Amino acid sequence: MNPNAADTDLAARASALNVGQLFALQAAYDGDRIAIREGDRHVSYGELNRRVNRLADALQSVGVAHGDRIAILSENRTEYLELQLAAAKLGAIVAAQNWRLATAELEHCIRLTTPRVIIVSPRYADALSRVSHTSETVIQLGDDYEARLARASDREPTAAAGGEDGLIILYTSGTTGLPKGALISHRAMIARGQIFYLDHAVERDDAFVAWAPLFHMVSTDLALSALMRGSKVVVQDGFDADALVRIVGEERIGWLVLMPGMIEAFNQRMRETGTRPAGVKAAGCMADLVPLHQISEATRLLQAPYVNSFGSSETGAAPASKGVIGIGETPERLSKVQSSYCQIRLVDENDNAVPDGEPGELAIRGPSLFSGYWRAPEVNAEDFRGGWFHMGDMFIRNPDGTLDFVDRRKYLIKSGGENIYPAEIERVLLADPRIADAVVVRRPDARWGEVPVAFVVPEDRGLSEDDVLACCRDRIASYKLPKQVLFVGQDELPRSTTGKIKRHELEARLREAG
Q1: What's the number of domains the chain is made of?
Q2: Residues with Cβ < 8 Å from 65, sequence gap 6 or more?
Q3: How far is CA 58 from the centre of its chain?
Q4: Could you tell me the pTM of the whole model?
Q5: For the domain that residue 492 is a member of, what is the CATH number?
Q6: Could you count the other beta carbons within 10 Å of the beta carbon of residue 17?
């Protein structure tokens, strides 16, 4: 028994800090400062805080309490951030739904977290209507939402969350083909902002542009981090090259997110308009998936280095997002630099450390780590074994301490910023009686970084590529559809002695075919 247990508990309570409190402090400190810009609308910290408090009161009036989940299905808009901040003050958890998912996938994600309330935008109301759920209250953004706020109090909520309480659930693709819910705590969210700002010298006067979906780590992490430190968040409804270029010319930006699949269009509009940036500290992410010439041009156009990142929904910008590619550079290697405030190990299949120069799975410790997958104890036990989170990604450590990415241990496909697991597509293909066997592998792609390709053994000789794609539509998100279908015989699928298909040989075949 710990003789100081009572003191330790009191100390833990005294040291608790949450995202809602840090945001409210900014509102009290500088209420007239602009917190959010959305189009021509500018919302001050004071006004935003009052709306957040009204929303918190409205949510409590329909029974939302500490630990309850609130699902949101919406495009990027100011109300999305209002909900995240209101939940932060109440100790509730926001389950951020991916509107790109097919109905069955969306239903799985909503039912997984059993939300007490669902908030939906008019754009996705029809999609929600096709989902079976048990939520007691559905609030539609617009008149319904505003009427509830008008009736509510703007007093600060009395409920408070601790650092280890959950704040956000972000969904990641699973090896079983169904998304998993990664629970992000207040502690992790606070740490994520601090790590990125430290590693890239982002300041309070540097804005963040939230154009990537707020159901993604990149926008939610950096938007909430900005609002905890008094920075401006520019909310943009998805990627629009013209809008993004205008913002670049008008706002001083800390980190401008650029993702595979959109950089060429952005570069083109920058060239055509001759826009001069108002100031960008750093740009880009996931350099491994972007053609190097696009990176070089983007850095010249923005006069800012490119962030050579490696992170995940589970870890934030850590473990390896500190390094940058200099302005105009075309590097021969994309070696990465370990992020601040984390420990990493590279281990073999028995979790023994591997020597420098040999591939090992990256395992990480640090305050930015998520709190585990929602309702997935067996997965959590495996991934957090030994007190380290095992990412499933293979790296080599160089003599200078930098890290070279080797491969994704479980054949994850990263396409235009989205994660796709082959099993997600394979389970749909293999459910079709016209298909005898199928395997999905990745193929490099100049625009998207990587795309899925399906090798299919037909049971029905008349099966066409259109038939295969049709069996996938409405069952998986459109961005997961195979970009190519190749019909093969059963004996053309290379297998190991245990009967497993050798995916790497099929990928090599695709590379050789060009």
Answers
A1: 3
A2: 90, 91, 92, 159
A3: 28
A4: 0.85
A5: 3.30.300.30
A6: 15
